[in-house]
Amino acid sequence: FQAVVDHETWVMNLKEANLYDYPIWYKLYSTRSAYQMPSLLPQDWDNLLNKMVTDNALFDIYYKNYWKNSPVRPTCDSECKKRMICDLRSGRSHDRKELCQELESRIDGNTRTSWRTWIYNGLALSLEDMHFTLN
Question: Where is the Sphingomyelin phosphodiesterase C-terminal domain (predicted)?
């Protein structure tokens, strides 16, 4: 049984390479280390995807690495997050509906504000405004 043990991504700064007339490569990340994965077996990738659904900090690390730490990477909202995680889960476009529906609904559930939270936040802001008005 043979398996990939780890993956490393190396990058260079193109501006520096042009300035010094040669590239200076540095390791951006190691997959297992960056995502705290015990291995790169399919089950560990699936666990990573499931964690990224609810762990925004972990997803942000993935997104930063996906863009090779580019300072001009676009922002990624919940629709972007759903698309990216679904792309990781599905290998073929016609698998998306079957493989991504549950992930997408979990992301939607984590990003939507419940009506109780909405009312509580509105009430807290109203009380705060009243406090300033009374002083």
Answer: 5-88
